[in-house]
Amino acid sequence: MLIKRNKLVLLSAIIILISLIIFSPYLINNMPLTYGTDIKPQWFEFYTEFKNLIIQFFETKQLPFYSWNLFLGNNFFASKSYYLMGDIFSYIGLLIPMNFFDVAQILEVIKFLVSGWTMYYLLGCYKHNTKVKFIGSIAYTFSSWAIFYSGQLSFLSFYCWMPLYFASIELYLRKGKKLMFPFICMILLFTNFYFFYTLSFFTPIYYIYRYSLLKDNFKNFIKDTLVLIGCYLLGVFMTGVLTLPTMAYILQNDRVGQFSLKLFFEQPSIYLHELCARLVPNYIYIYRTNVFETTAHTTRELCLYSGTLTAVLLPQIFSDKDKNFRKVTLIFYVILNLFLLFPFLSSMAHGFSDPTFRWTMILILVQISTVCHYLENINQLNIKNLKITMGISIFVLIAVIPLTVFLSKGNTISAYRNQILLFLSAIIFLVINTWLLLNKKSYIWLLTVLCIEYSISGFTLYYSRMRSEGITYEFIESVTHVLQEKDNDLNAFLENIEPINYLQYYRTYIPLESIYWNFSHNMSLMVQLQGTMTYDSTYAPSFNKMKEIALEVKDYDSEWIFNIKNPDILQFLSVKYAIVTNPSELPEGLSWRLLTDNYRSGLLVYRNDDYRSLGTTYNQISTYEEIESAKLITHLSDIVACESSDLMEIQNMMNSNHSVELENIAYQGNYLTGTCNTDESSFLVLSLPYDEGWRVFVNGQNVKTYSVNGGFVGFGIEAGNNQIEMYFTPVGFKQGAIISLIGIMGYVALIIHEKLKTRNSRRYKNEQSI
């Protein structure tokens, strides 16, 4: 036990040392870790809101279901399960009393450690020796997938636990142990449902592969498989409390169902990139001057590299003397690589959405585990194979850039000087590793070269990212405190301007460029403000309707970046204030009145004198088709826009000729209340995104809600004074909680069954020995 512990300590020390080298540019220059496409504009803000909702839970005992600050109001519980809600590292981060970027950096190191430990355990299940386990663990921990996606916090969380999934399958096939599989299924599904789907998609292929290697025949295949499927379902059931609400929410996302039927990628450069991506740390040039550039992040993010040692040894499959292992492994590996070649397969692996190469995390693991098989038998390597592999690899690295330039007819070769230097350095490591293998040098040399290779490539990436981003702690401190010094200062200021604000719900228009310094579309979360922009791929699905009838709500022509500037839509969305640096930044067409020209030493605060309350009754109605054909999008504050199937029902509620507003509004956590007095029954529209999780009561009676005016909530009210009460519980939460309870009870029953089975087996052996 002590020996095992010492080995893990040594492995941990190596991982921490490489991590420190990689992160050293940020550490030495005392700069926040902003590496990653989304860590600055998304993770920072979502994590801040997550933290605030958890604090709110302890203060008010309201579960963190709904966020009023997330774009127009949002089902945080279901939408952010993709990012935060089920990830155990999110909660660990809350315990670290530091700023977000330091917490993120500490968590990344912890995840690297967990990646190394779990891969070490998996390789132990494969019966590899300690030296091989060290090399395989380091290769997995710092693979191109791990380094590139380290800026996507939950992605790396999933990756670091994934080896345990394969380990539990191995334990089941080798020893019949079942308990680990449901538990790790639960952990992974809680962490990230998106990747759990992808992992589940590839599981049958992997399972059949391992079964054919470990079992003498397929006589008990169906029985064994059904047992494992049952264990899988137990794990899935235990997560029902989160995954059922998430499914109900995410399945409405317009990215789901964008299935690609393309047989081949249009750009030949993608296939050339695939050819050399195993040989070079390509994450260094992604998003830079790149000969393989495709302009689409889904096809440029090709992560296959896990060290040149892996690249050198993988072709040993072709010359393996074990015919069964060679045949089965080649078939398995060819099947996996088909997903690199055909977009429609890649699309299937990602939930029938856009084809992407994010699934290659599985290919990375398979490549490393296969190479470890040959490291285990290093003295039996095929020398001819090694030499041929080295020759072909060097040829590819020398020829691929000129060939790609020729095919693309783009820039000259000189434009890719840095990429050429990277390829030349890869050749050096390729030759060194081949020489070590040919001369049968010790594992220590192979491990040392691997560590140097990862340290240099990781350092290069983080150093270049740090220099290009140039974000300092002072900058972040400044941009997040432009509008307030302490939390809720801005809200307090606005509410003090007009005492009536305490009884109203309103939004505030802020220009991204000047006030938020182009930092993020999600800055409203940092100042506890109801804003009008977001960068969020899990935005409220009902807003898809607004995208259809008003394309201008999109920013950067993105499907999930919104910055609403249309004055008529801003009016409908109850925008009451605007804070700008210059009057020219105000959206035209609204009645702006200057309140102060010296907020926070120079900011201009304006009031919209045509402010529309969060809720207003309507007496005119049109279908979406009529709205679009007559271009009446500018009349959302006056006309109800609805589906044709709802037209008659809603119209029958419109018996009042007057328009009145929702008053005495109070909202916090998962509820909103207000009053509305009308002479006749009418139809009230709230500028909150429609979500079936809202239960609406009018004078104590639960009423039907409708999705109107581009995906917002509408419902009927009675004549006279109406007391409105709204309570939010994510769709599927209660049913999911029941499913989780069933799953937990089933898992407990499985534990008891396995313990009794083990005890009876031991008793039987003892009796036999007597």
Concise synopsis of the structure shown:
This is YfhO family protein. The chain is an alpha+beta fold and 770 residues long.
How would you characterize this protein structure?
Helix 5 (100-125) packs parallel to helix 8 and helix 13 (268-276) packs antiparallel against helix 19. The protein has a 5-stranded antiparallel β-sheet with strand order 12-13-19-15-16, with no helix packed on it. The protein has a 4-stranded mixed β-sheet with strand order 3-6-8-7. A 4-stranded antiparallel β-sheet has the order 9-14-18-17. The protein has 28 helices and 19 strands. It folds into 3 domains: 2-30 and 81-469, no CATH class; 487-608, no CATH class; 615-728, Sandwich (Maltose phosphorylase, domain 3). The chain is of the alpha+beta class. Strand 17 (705-708) and strand 18 form a beta hairpin. The protein is globular.
